[in-house]
From TrEMBL, chains A, B:
This is MerR HTH family regulatory protein. Residues 1-70 form the HTH merR-type domain. One of its GO terms (molecular function) is DNA binding. Keywords: DNA-binding.
Length: 221, 221
């Protein structure tokens, strides 16, 4: 199909498609005579993925490009792709927002303390996590900010948040278990992680409304 | 203190502080003779809050300004502030990323179906949620994208994600329960919701690594 049709089918404006092509998020079309680009279902699917990651997942164009380039790399194994996309995602996402000042902060006393709090949590729960796992740093980053804001009640509730996270993670693993096609597995893990954050955030707000209503609503007579 | 000291104490560069002042995120300093602006601990605290929401929470400057203006409004009750910041946050955040095409999509058949899936979930779990709650739409938005990407396994696991969200929400309510100061209550709820999303995301990645290791690692001999 031509670009106009790709735009109609995907619902993404032509100018935006051209932008994704320039930025390397969307692979070029196949050149057909007389020198026109032609697009297929793989382009439609890629556009749907890009929009989901950026619109709902809130990922920047730079982060999305970095993640997609890993997924597209034929020289990486599935394990590497899973590690590089899912494992590093927190770091890529956090890195997009954090400036040099904040990165430098990670050597400070308060961040060392936060990292210790994470280590203690992992030990209490028996979670075996690689020393270099970016999610360790991401968790410590959040704890540092909570501490600076004096949110000690939230920090004290860390174990219960970890319990909620474990229920989500068990479900995540169930969702990918049994997928044999490697490309499908990597995409499912990526989408599940990024859109899963958005889904959990929305469900948490709904659950807050429910729990809050249960605790504070006047019971019906 | 002068702006140079505010920068040193808060760790935020002077140029960034000036940007927040221009954008209305940070209240102006008190004018002291001879016509110089003076800042105090409330400015340090506000800068810490802005950086936490933008860096770790990934909120845009526009969304942060909208949320802070609600918090600062003396004419709103605590209940209104909680509703407008926490309740609308999903919508404000989603609205920042979604363009007109995506908003129009909400009237489409696939979004109607996703909204029905959310309604059914709420009924199964006995969650009583306002018809106009923005989190309903946010959840349906994510389900629409998952459906478009063919992620039916994730959609089928919705109840278990809701279970994880309920554990988090119970904890959220415990964290704010007993806070009597109204400003502190509103800020705790705001920070807990926004940084809580980031904390849950990091903990979920750690839990994924743990669960994945437990299921696939060769047991030690």
């Amino acid at each position: 199909m031509r670009m106009a049709e790709l735009s109609r089918v995907s619902g993404v404006p032509v100018a935006t498609i051209k932008y994704y092509l320039r930025e390397g998020l969307l692979p070029a079309g196949h050149l057909t005579p007389p020198n026109q680009a032609s697009y297929d279902q793989s382009h439609v699917r890629r556009l749907t993925l890009i929009r989901a990651l950026t619109d709902v997942g809130g990922m920047s164009i730079a982060t999305t490009r970095a993640v997609l380039s890993v997924i597209d790399d034929p020289d990486r194994t599935v394990r590497q792709k899973l590690g590089a996309t899912i494992g590093s995602l927190g770091d890529l996402q956090a890195g997009a927002g954090a400036d040099k000042t904040d990165r430098a902060d990670r050597t400070g006393e308060e961040h060392v303390q936060a990292a210790k709090t994470v280590d203690d949590l992992l030990e209490r729960r028996g979670w075996r996590i690689e020393r270099t796992s970016p999610a360790r740093t991401a968790a410590a980053d959040v704890l540092t900010r909570l501490d600076r804001l004096g949110q000690h009640r939230a920090i004290a509730a860390l174990d219960r948040y970890a319990e909620a996270a474990e229920v989500a993670a068990e479900t995540d693993l169930d969702v990918v278990t049994g997928i044999e096609d490697e490309d499908e597995l990597v995409e499912t893990a990526l989408v599940g992680t990024v859109l899963g954050d958005a889904l959990l955030a929305a469900l948490r707000r709904l659950a807050q409304e429910h729990v809050s209503g249960n605790r504070y609503r006047t019971p019906p007579r």
